Amino acid sequence: MHIYQPHIRVWLKLQNQKHDFCYVHTPILTSSDCEGAGETFRVTSSFCPSSDAPDSPSELPDAQSAEFFSKPAYLTVSSQLHLEALASSLARVYTLSPCFRAERSQTNRHLAEFWMLEAEWAWTCNINDVCNLVEASVKDALVFGNSEEGERRVLAKGVSGYEERLRSLEDARGPKPWARMTYTEAIVELEKYSASAASKAHPFQFEPSWGRTLQSEHERWLSEVLIKGPVFVTDYPSTLKPFYMRSNDDGRTVACFDLLVPHVGELAGGSLREERLDPLRSRMTALDLDTKGEEYGWYLDLRKFGTAPHGGFGLGFERLVSWVSAIENVRECISMPRWVRKMLL
User: Fold this and answer.
1) What's the CA gap between 244 and 262, in Å, rounded?
2) Beta-strand relationship, 92-100 and 22-23
3) DSSP letters along 206-258, please?
4) Which of 9, 120, 183, 283 has the fewest CB atoms inside 10 Å of its own CB, making it the most exposed?
5) Residue 26: predicted pLDDT
6) Cα 244 to the chain's mean position, in Å?
7) Gap between the Cα atoms of 222 and 189, Å rounded
């Protein structure tokens, strides 16, 4: 589909020329679960010892383990941790690469294999600065030439309410800053709606409550009904987010955001990273993560031997295509989709 390529070119041009980001390659195979959710694909070798196997110890699996890398390996769920290491040297880095999630969600927003644009940069100390860059980048990707506008209309032929969605995209790429609210403010608005008479006709399936994850229905209500456009929701409870996010002074929340857009929900997410050694070690210990071994020890060493305040974000590429083209299902936004119990081609 031709509409894919302009978006890729826009991203590459934007990151390289406008903001001095350096494109880097990151590993697909990793020993850690960046998000800590356990939704990883484990990679194993098909080697099976037999009577014909060579006797040389160097050609046999380790006596203590049949693992190819001598320890468990996984398909990456995110390039972020490796980008942090590279940002310590190059300051501003990004990648556009495949990511994998072994989650069993059968929604129109989930894939087992997808592409994600991720960026990381040093010397950012405020979550609003990260939001500003994400907003500028996405707005830049919403600018189309005449031929691409025609392509979008062909793609959207027969899509109910597309003219309204087109106007929504035009508003989104305008000069007006996108809305921002904290997680706490979002919960207040969701609870107000849930208690109102209007919710009787369209009730939430999941009751909103502080400390609980925002469900897809909550994300879409915030962006489609309350804000009627993109909205950054910031400062989530630390219990809902991964270990690497920087703790806020209140001790309950972390400096992070989710970018919610109409008809899609979460499009991008990011945070300031915890650059302070002791708070990071304490958080990892509380989550029972190995802070001394090879799995995460190197990550702590980045702080131990000197670092800079830094932050970054990840953006789902198929979700961006879905939002822009009005294709409701992300499985139609990638050439060869994979999801639970389905591997096409």
Assistant:
1) 28
2) parallel
3) S---TTSPPPHHHHHIIIIIISSS-EEEE--BGGGS-TTBPBPTTSSBBSEEE
4) 9
5) 95
6) 14
7) 8
Out of 71-85, 139-153, 168-182, least confident range: 139-153
| Residue 255 tokens, joined | 């400096």
Tokens 């320890």, residue located: 71
CB 28 within 8 A of CB 79: no
Measured in whole angstroms, the distance separating CA 105 from the mean position of its chain's CA atoms is: 16
Q: How confident is the model at residue 39 (pLDDT cuts 50, 70, 90)?
A: confident
CA–CA separation, 60 vs 3, rounded Å? 49
Rg (CA), the chain: 22
One-letter amino acid for residue 102 of the chain: A
- Single out the residue of 136, 134, 132, 174 nearest to residue 316, CA to CA: 134
pTM: 0.88
Q: How confident is the model at residue 32 (pLDDT cuts 50, 70, 90)?
A: confident
Q: Which domains does the chain have, with CATH numbers?
A: 4-44+64-178+276-343 (3.30.930.10)
For residue 161, which of 263, 231, 230 has the smallest C-alpha distance?
263
Q: Determine whether 286 is exposed, middle or buried from the number of CB atoms within 10 Å of its CB (0-12, 13-18, 19+).
A: exposed
Q: What amino acid occupies position 101?
A: R
Left if phi > 0, otherwise alpha if psi is -120 to 50, otherwise beta: which for 96?
beta
